[in-house]
Amino acid sequence: MNIDLLKRLCETPGVAGREERVRDLIAAEAASLFDDIRTDAMGSLVCTRRGKGKHPEKIMLACHMDEIGFIVSHVTDKGFLHVQPLGGFDPRNLFSRRVLVVTDKGDHRGVMNPEGKPIHIQAAEDRKKVPEPGDFIIDTGHGAAAKDIFRVGDTVVMDEPFIEMGDKLVSKALDNRVACWLGLEAVRRLVAKGRSHDCELTVAFTVQEEVGLRGARTVAFQVKPDIGIGVDTTLCCDTPGVPEKDRTTVSGAGFGLHIKDGSFIADTALVAEFEALAKQKDIPFQRTVLASGGQDGAALQQAASGARAIGIVVGTRYIHTVTEMVDRTDLKAARDILTAFIAAH
């Protein structure tokens, strides 16, 4: 598997609204895989492969490029940056983090901590308080000169390397650079095996999913797919402290056949088709249902006159943290089922 590509995708910064560096990386990888590549008005990268069918069915994969992060909302006279979140954070995971502040003129390292006293001078009541994401500040070490370097609207991502641990891959931004990897590698595998398809295939690398499925919605209105596949990560809570009924997926048990979440319910016939195909090809899978949350599949389903939709997902431990973890087996299974489904259409 092309793990180097996944590493480069994860380590490239790109929060909602500032995905251009990730888009450029993907565009370079996609150049030899698609017949047409364009960037739409919102910034999504829309890649299309023409099919061999006379009246081709339109199939669209939505793979969002944005990662969770922050936007700078204020720079103090002493050079501390105040931020607002772009995406959902559990503030307990934000203490003492190294970050990257992304500006138009370059990237700068910084550290993120909550406002307030260190443990040595805290009262007992202070230790019970959990700050909100907006209570955290960033120190870049530039002091008062920071006002000349940073400005409102600069963005911030976590600064952590991609690592391999046994059968697991760990990084920030696996949600959702995993899907970007899958959108490229499923098609690359199709090409490598010389497999054609009748359908018109669009792989849309979408923007601003983490703040409301915005990019997928506009692309879907342009493409008007017959079948929409939301490619994403999902919860994997097979870890201590979580009841079995809430685990969603089990790491290493295969790709997730995503049936329902807070934003959409998958098309029943598509669920049956993917399940039959996975069994035929001996690709491991697990059915997934999520109580809340959403993904781009919902936008594809509801755009224009609607589409049949489903989600293909990869279970991810410790999601929305810098220690997101996926299993190689699940990643390969997701790639293989997408390739098989496209080839069958």
Explain the overall architecture:
- Helix content is 25%, strand content 29%.
- The chain starts with a helix and ends with a helix.
- It has helices at 3-11, 20-30, 174-192, 214-223, 268-281, 296-302, 328-343, and strands spanning 36-39, 45-49, 58-64, 69-75, 80-86, 97-103, 106-114, 136-139, 155-158, 163-165, 168-171, 200-206, 227-235, 255-260, 285-289, 308-316, 324-327.
- It contains seven helices and 17 strands.
- It has an eight-stranded mixed beta sheet with strand order 1-2-12-3-13-16-14-15, with helices on both faces. The chain has a six-stranded antiparallel beta barrel with strand order 4-5-8-7-6-9. A three-stranded antiparallel beta sheet has the order 10-11-17.
- The protein is an alpha+beta fold and 345 residues long.
- The mean pLDDT is 94.
- It is globular, with a radius of gyration of 21 Å.
- A hairpin with a 4-residue loop joins strand 4 (69-75) and strand 5.
Number of strands: 17
Average pLDDT rating: 94
Radius of gyration: 21 Å
Query: Could you give a short account of the major beta sheet?
Result: 8 strands, mixed
Rough outline: globular
Strand arrangement, largest sheet?
1-2-12-3-13-16-14-15
| Low-pLDDT sequence parts | none
Distance between the termini: 24 Å
Alpha-beta content class: alpha+beta
| Count of helical regions | 7
Order of helices and strands: HHEEEEEEEEEEEHEHEEHEHEEH
Helix content: 10-25%
Strand content: 25-35%
Task: For the structure shown, list the relevant keywords.
345 residues; alpha+beta; eight-stranded mixed sheet; six-stranded antiparallel β-barrel; 17 strands; 29% strand; globular
